[in-house]
Amino acid sequence: MNKTLAAAAALIPLAAGCTVAGNASGGDGSDTIVVGYQSKTINTVTAGTLLRSLGAFEKRLKDLGKAEGKSYKVVWQDYDTGAPITAQMLAGKIDIGSMGDYPLLINGSRSQAQGGDAETEWVSVTGYNLRGSLNGVVVSNASKARTLRDLKGKAVSASVGSAGHGTLVQAARKYGLDAAKDLKIENQQPTVGSSALQAGSAAALAQFVAWPGLLVNKGQARLLYDGGALNVPTFHGVVVRKQFAKERTKILEAFLAAQIDATRSLHADPVKAAESVASSTGLPAETVYLYNGAGGVATFDPTIKKDLRAAFVQDVPFLKSIGVIQTPLKVDPFVNDTYIRKVVGASYERDAASTANPAAITGTDAVCKTAVNDPATAGEVWVAGEAKTRPVADPVCLLRNVRALQAEGKKLRAVYIPDATTGTRWFADKDVWVEDPSAKAAQRFKPFATQEAADKYVAAHSGAKVVAYAEAVRRA
């Protein structure tokens, strides 16, 4: 987010009066706004976990209340997936919610079918990835599967209708598989699916952020399919009941301004933000930072971008084809950037047109003595006891940094580097590393998030071979 956008939240005139429709009241007589979120779906933190911990929405509502001579109360309701948030919104029990693109589409479809006061609209984005790297399929470390094709006839856990499920179905088609016929898809919550994978009752788990990274980070699984290989944008966003937005516009604007506050806070100190989210959710900070850190898998920007809207339109017939929705969503009346456009201000069009990660990795590589300025190769080393990560220029420099730090006796919390093919940021020590003797010295070692990607590179480059991470560190 640029400085103009970052400052926009501070410019929202919360002191202006507004007419507010009747809503649930707290026991103390205050008006209650109910927000549904997914604490462990960390791509929504700027409208959920981080926003809640910062108290930014409550602060803005307090300012609004002073101007109106009343008080507001926020009730936060936490769910594992977007489906129950949609159910509660259709029942008029949740005012504002955050969820992934597929659940958003389902939300809009069902709200339009129900009509009346139940209708909803998508009003902002939390985080996104243009290639789809927020989703993935993982298998146990002992699994012999090397591609999705190897899952044919086996049980795969997924939350049906989620972005993770959608990635599985679309990716399976590229391998000549019909997910409904060739895979035994078990419709399970992420926590249940994770347990099923560990117990061996599921051969794989197809899920959204942060489950693939969590299981890999804990050493309980490996990435079989990188959603970035699908090259289809995926995102999470904010949805609101239309009636609420129309009648309580100033409250919605306060929420969106608070979302910008949270986004600015995340960009200003991503390590602190990751630690905060980790504390609130119980997730390892290293996993949170994989997705939400500088140069992370997720890019946080509240504007609704054309690429994301276009992908959303393409998802409508796809979800209908697999039976997740019955009534095709009318996209135009569902997508409404009016509110976030007003909150952001004059820079909205420029910000919405940009897809550069505003939290890029920058600085100087301490070992290679070079500037870190290429997001396609830049990585980070997180040293235990240090409040900031150390930037590295490229994969070979990362290996050299790790070697130097190990020689100093330093303990490393995590090491991050983009996949050489998809650009998906992953844990360097969990990557499959390939040595290519024909490449220049500075490009001799290449990281891949999946075995399949590494195999493809080796097959296409004579002399290239897979090497253990420790061996790559020793020889870089």
Automatic annotation (TrEMBL):
Pfam family, one: NMT1
Superkingdom classification of source: Bacteria
PROSITE patterns per the UniProt record, alphabetical: PROKAR_LIPOPROTEIN (PS51257)
Keyword Signal among record annotations: yes
Keywords: Signal
Residue span, SsuA/THI5-like domain: 131-273
Signal peptide positions on this chain: 1-21
PANTHER family in the cross-refs: ABC TRANSPORTER SUBSTRATE-BINDING PROTEIN, ALIPHATIC SULFONATES-BINDING PROTEIN-RELATED
Record protein name field: ABC transporter substrate-binding protein
